[in-house]
């Protein structure tokens, strides 16, 4: 019985995360682009050549990561939200050539 409750709770959390991800997708894209531009401008002061790229973790990749890494935490703590656990939704890679 407790396992069924946990499975329902996890399913609800994933559904909630999916909706939130879609709602905030444009914001995340704008945030990543803004961060990239800030880094590019800062690097231009010291480096002639640099490469800055960003990525936003795909929704399905997030769900896969939840299943692999955070499922136990979510089962043990009903108050935890998926967004509290994902720390790498936006990534920036910086390559400086000098």
Helix/strand layout:
Elements: H1 2-44, E1 49-56, H2 59-76, H3 82-85, E2 90-97
Antiparallel strand pairs: 1-2
Pick out its properties.
two-stranded antiparallel ribbon, 16% strand, 98 residues, alpha+beta
Explained architecture:
It is a single chain. The chain is an alpha+beta fold and 98 residues long. Helices cover 66% and strands 16% of the residues. It is built from three helices and two strands, in the order αβααβ. It has a two-stranded antiparallel ribbon. The radius of gyration is 18 Å and the shape is elongated. The mean pLDDT is 88.
- Largest sheet, strands/sense/barrel: 2 strands, antiparallel
Please give the number of β-strands: 2
Approximate shape: elongated
Spell out the helices and strands N to C.
Answer: HEHHE
Uncertain spans: none
Strand order of the largest sheet: 1-2
Oligomeric category: single chain
Proportion of residues in extended strands: 15-25%
Total count of helical runs of at least 4 residues? 3
Whole-number average pLDDT? 88
SS class = alpha+beta
Rg over CA atoms = 18 Å
**Ends distance:** 61 Å
Helicity, as a percent range: 55-70%
């Amino acid at each position: 019985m407790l396992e069924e409750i946990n499975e329902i709770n996890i399913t609800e959390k994933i559904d909630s995360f999916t909706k939130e991800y879609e709602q905030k997708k444009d914001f995340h894209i704008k945030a990543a682009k803004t961060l990239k531009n800030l880094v590019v401008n800062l690097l231009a002061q010291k480096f002639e050549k640099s490469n800055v790229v960003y990525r936003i973790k795909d929704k399905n990749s997030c769900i896969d990561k939840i299943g692999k890494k955070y499922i136990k935490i979510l089962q043990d703590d009903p108050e935890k939200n998926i967004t509290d656990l994902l720390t790498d939704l936006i990534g920036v890679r910086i390559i400086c050539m000098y």
